[in-house]
Write a structure and sequence with these properties.
CATH topology: Muramoyl-pentapeptide Carboxypeptidase, domain 2
Number of domains: 1
Helix content: 25-40%
CATH class: Alpha Beta
Number of strands: 7
Largest sheet: 5 strands, mixed
Order of helices and strands: HEEEHEHEHHEEH
Distance between the termini: 38 Å
Radius of gyration: 19 Å
Shape: globular
CATH architecture: 2-Layer Sandwich
Length: 236
């Protein structure tokens, strides 16, 4: 009986610690000056993939976190992109899959891919990538019914069909040309190519560019060293 009580107490303490950590994610985001994107535009959809098991890790990395946080200036760019999308496609909305990410989560992700060909897709956990500074967003476009458009490859697809180029210095025209190349090769459909180009166009209009190996990832048109100099690492 005594052992069972001790075991139950240990389980309760662990559960409380996990609960505290989950609550802390929201509090820490705000403490670092980040804003909830939906507080600026409630029509932007949020479905954090790392708060589910629908990601390359296959587990919930965010606990109860359900809000998409970004630095204010970056969040405003996403809101501007939403407005442009609504003008071009009434009823359509951006759907965010990931936004700011604590460096602790980044380190856990990196461990999953260490020693595999997929390390290029996951930033080093020592200094972090743009998500870990609150200036990167993973997103797609959803139709009037909230259904994500066909982009030719799913979120966290590590194959070439998820690419939009081979060089980060690509222009919008070159990104679109690469998408057309994938379409001609039969890797993605006509519809997927058109949808991917639509997203590229809209995000380019707010001065955001994609990471060439992930059609869903958008970031500022500045280097990673400049990003680290300009912003604060989400060190929690």
């Amino acid at each position: 009986m005594a052992r069972r009580v001790i075991w139950l107490l240990a389980l309760l303490i662990a559960s409380c610690e996990l609960w505290a950590q989950e609550i802390d994610f929201n509090e820490q985001m705000k403490r670092y000056g980040l804003v909830d994107v939906q507080s600026l535009d409630k029509n932007i959809g949020v479905e954090l993939k790392y708060a589910t098991e629908d990601n390359f890790v296959g587990e919930n990395m965010y606990g109860s976190l359900r809000k998409a946080y970004l630095l204010p200036h970056f969040a405003k760019k996403v809101v501007q992109a939403q407005q442009i999308l609504r003008q071009r496609k009434p009823g359509y909305s951006l759907l965010i899959y990931d936004a700011a990410r604590p460096i602790s989560v980044q380190r856990r992700m990196r461990k999953v891919v260490e020693g595999t060909p997929f390390t290029a897709y996951v930033a080093d956990g020592s200094r972090g990538g743009r998500h870990n500074y609150g200036v990167a967003v993973d997103l797609t476009i959803a139709d009037e019914a909230g259904v994500p458009l066909d982009m030719g490859a799913g979120f966290d697809d590590f194959t070439r069909k998820a690419w939009v180029g081979e060089d980060d210095a690509f222009s919008l025209a070159e990104y679109k040309s690469y998408v057309e190349k994938l379409r001609r090769e039969g890797l993605i459909s006509n519809e997927a190519a058109a949808n991917r180009c639509l997203l590229l166009e809209i995000m380019d209009m707010v001065e955001l560019r994609p990471y060439v190996k992930e059609w869903w990832h958008y970031q500022e048109k500045i280097s990673m060293p400049t990003t680290r100099e300009r912003y604060k690492l989400l060190d929690f």
